[in-house]
Amino acid sequence: MDANGPIVKHNVPQTPQTPTPHKKKHAKHHGGKHHRKSRSGKKKTGFLCCRGKKRRKSRKGHGKSKSTAHKQPRSKVVKPLPPVVNEQLGDVVLVKNLERSKSFPIQQLPGAPQSPNKVTPSKASKETDKDDKLQKSKSKTKLDEKSDNNKDIKDEKKDDKKEGKKEEKKDEKKDDDGNTEEKKQKWLGLAKRFVDEDANIAANDFEQVVSYIPPSVTKHQFVKNMHKNRFADVICLDHSKVHLSDSSYIHASYLELDTQKRAILTQLPLPHTSADFWQMIIEQRVKCVLLLLTDSEYDSLGGDFVFPRNQDFLNFEERSIRVGEFKRVEIMDGWVLKVVSVSNGDYKSFLHIHHYNAWPHNNIPGNGSPKFVKQIWQLQSVLRKYSPSTPTVYMSLSGCGRAGTFALFETAHLSLHSEQATLDLVKCLEMVRNGRIHACQNLTQFSFVYTLLAEHILDNGFCKLAIPKKPNDEKDKEKDKENEDEINVQMILRQLVINKC
């Protein structure tokens, strides 16, 4: 407002400005739009703006050729990773380090062209070199004579050492031949026992040991903890019972298979004793468990309460133990390998569970057929690879029938390969029952151990030596003889199996 009155602003029409040719190009370049004003209020001209962009682009592409449109990445030096530590389960290596390839110095081949840096000697220098060579050759001859004398002395010493080593090797071979001949005679005697059709080995031996009870044994802990036993008539002896750190009871027994090898025989845990089982696994540092149960027994008797399912976990809160299954591999029909982790606080370990489900309760696998006999041998050869420093766990429904039979088979096999090769299943079963009183419960299981040992002895060539050959055999029948030997082994194995319990 003013004293004279309000100030009136008249709308004066402005003449439109005609854009310059540079502005037209600039508007087309930016999609028909002009630049906004800057904070300072000054308008950037199109020429300077585009020029600035060109300068920025030129800075980015500085030092590159015009042909390269994209930016190339710079090569970075990658540091080599440290070597992986060998992960083992006993003697079974899971991850093995690969040896790095060694780099050898490059040697120049004979007759190859020399490098251009070498200068060829002139004629004048060749003449001077001849005199030097003559003097050097004279000195070399003297040194060569001395070295030849030394070589002759060294060669004589080497010849004497070689002769001494040859004599030692001959003596060792003689000793080995003597030992092998003694072993062959012992194994031949065992093979003849199997070949004799009239001998009923298994039945006669089992009568001697069927009622064996180890002397001065007690069962106090077994009676006090009846709620932790699966069967009331399968006794866990006090002297061989596995002790836990908190003095709690578990139905498991130690067994001395050999002076260097130890095993644990145990029942399938109950749902309320599963935590005790895993506590035993942790304290005894077990790396291998042999589970002898059929699939129907595993499902109906609560195997999922003890072992986790495929890629699953089990938590035992009363002992703060966590068990998880990471991998499952089917080795063959009836044989599954499970890789399981066990953790308790800061402690964590891995172990293998070999679940063999082709062995029914109170019976033998495949009625003792040669196929299943070889399958048990394959299983036993895998279990032998685990270190003897930690015990192997044999588990069946009661921990006596199938687990005890496998323990008897293991002790008998170790006795065959001892210093004095003997086959006395009566003594072997007494040793097993000193730790697990009800091991190998019937005659069928006892006779199955005989078939396993017979397959091991006769299939190694002793069947040909034990069975007398027929006279006047023709050369064309050699192949038929080999087939006859295989048939004889199978017939002997079937005769040794006694299916009547």
From TrEMBL:
Superkingdom field: Eukaryota
Feature: compositional bias, Basic and acidic residues: 124-183
Occurrences of domain Tyrosine specific protein phosphatases (ranges): 370-447
GO molecular function: protein tyrosine phosphatase activity
Composition bias type Basic residues, residue spans: 21-77
Region described as Disordered: 1-87, 104-183
Composition bias type Polar residues, residue spans: 114-123
Cross-referenced Gene3D superfamilies: Protein tyrosine phosphatase superfamily
Pfam families xrefs: Y_phosphatase
Stretches assigned to the Tyrosine-protein phosphatase domain: 225-456
Record-given protein name: Tyrosine-protein phosphatase domain-containing protein
Species annotation: Caenorhabditis elegans
